[in-house]
Amino acid sequence: MNWIAPIAAELRAPMVHPRPDGAGDTLALNLNESPLPPSPLAIEAAMATIAGVNRYPPTDGGPLTAALAAKTGIPAERIGLACGSDMLLHLLCMVSLAPDRSAVLPFPSFPRYGLSTRIAGARAIPVEVGPDGANDPERLLASIAPDTSIVFCCTPNGNTGGSLSRAALAHIARHVPDEVMLVVDEAYAEFDPDADTLAVLAERRGPWAVTRTFSKAYALAGLRIGYMLASDARVAEVIRAVRPIFEMTSPALAAAEAALGDMAHLELMLKTTSEGRSQLDAGLRGLGFAPLPSRANFITTDLRRPAGPILRAMEARGVLVRGVMDPGWANFLRITVGLPEQNARALAALREALDD
């Protein structure tokens, strides 16, 4: 018997994304990170915990869970924490999927849905997003099979930035069967303040979970902290049952709580992102492209030619951006919103790469 399980043997480690090595002036606009540092209050709170890291962190999230309950109106017993929303999405697959089940998921979007579906031995049913880059409600619902136990939707959508309207999300919530888990990935929720996701899902009779992160708008990507808001305490309970017991670190918990309370810094982040997104949108249109409408901290456009050579040419000029790897999307380029001078540099590098 081979010690590697058949499913694991089929998997490959995720692609290693290029990172600046610190020796030059490479600009990283490929991973949807914040161009600004986190709140000074978050940094101070994290540093204050360092002397006590000989002790394990609270397994229930302690004050952070209470702060999230106060902010969202979701009771603490319906809130789950983990090392990033990536881990929460993985755990939701682990508790909902099995080899005789399937998951409905959008593409192009966050790769975690499909990867964890495969790890669970289940069948993935990919559903292409609409022409505006938002999840397609009718196609998602039409793809639900008798063996489907979990449906993912993402708003704003990873890789494209399209956002579901309130009516579209309500339609999904109303028609996903009550025995199926509905997961709404809101990693970019703060950039889409008009969304009313929790109010919409409150009307759903079946189970649901909303996943969010402190990596994007709160600029804590390196600390790895995310949270889940669930339809009932049982959903949060089963996630806690399968999650590593001391997964979150004390610095991450403290920083996230402090960041959550610093509204002035969050407003600065949102303003910087909105202005930068408009700058990139105008620049891309000036180059003759029609970017997809985005409510996230990135912008995606169809280059009308393979993106691979353009990516490499931009990297040679010290600018890292991202292609969209899903089938049928090889011509699309994604640029993370940076500071004004960084956005200008990215547009200049793209212009030169196109000239090549």
Tell me what the structure shows.
The termini are far apart. Helix 2 packs antiparallel against helix 10 (250-261) and helix 12 packs across helix 13. This protein has helices at 6-10, 40-49, 63-72, 85-96, 112-119, 137-142, 166-175, 197-201, 233-242, 250-261, 263-286, 307-316, 340-355; strands spanning 27-28, 79-82, 102-107, 123-128, 148-154, 181-185, 208-213, 226-230, 298-302, 319-320, 322-323, 332-336. It folds into 2 domains: 16-38 and 264-355, Aspartate Aminotransferase, domain 1, CATH 3.90.1150.10; 40-261, Type I PLP-dependent aspartate aminotransferase-like (Major domain) (Aspartate Aminotransferase, domain 2), CATH 3.40.640. It has a 7-stranded mixed beta sheet, sandwiched between helices. A 3-stranded antiparallel beta sheet has the order 9-12-11, covered by helices on one side. Strands 1-10 form a two-stranded parallel ribbon. By secondary structure, it is an alpha/beta fold.
